[in-house]
Amino acid sequence: MPTGAITEHFSWGEARCQCGKCTGWGDPHIEDSIRQTAEWAEEVRAALGNWPMRVNSWYRCAAWNKQVGGATNSQHLWGKAIDFTLKDLSPATVQKMLKARWPNLIKGLGSYRGFTHIDRRDGEPALWRG
To answer: Which residue in 5, 7, 58, 124 has its CB near the most CB atoms, within 10 A?
Structure first.
């Protein structure tokens, strides 16, 4: 598993699956996708006024995704999604700010009570409340 920084504000530690025993690490497609997501997340961070993002979930292996109740086609499985919070800004405020960027910057935007889900999915954009 790579270590250290991916971009200025995001690290491999933040991106790793929380199960602690993934088989996805080492897959060059997953690692490349995570790099692309980190670069995109820098744009999202800038759009939010450069508030530090606290990553709750990024890449998930299939077993962990199932355990946490993730969608069977979750963008987390490919490292294309991030669930996060911002210190001092409520998820509702963050979601309102990002909704103005949907679907140009944010392709998938999930509004949850305790966090915000963003993703860079291919295909049709999606907007939902969880």
So the answer is: 58
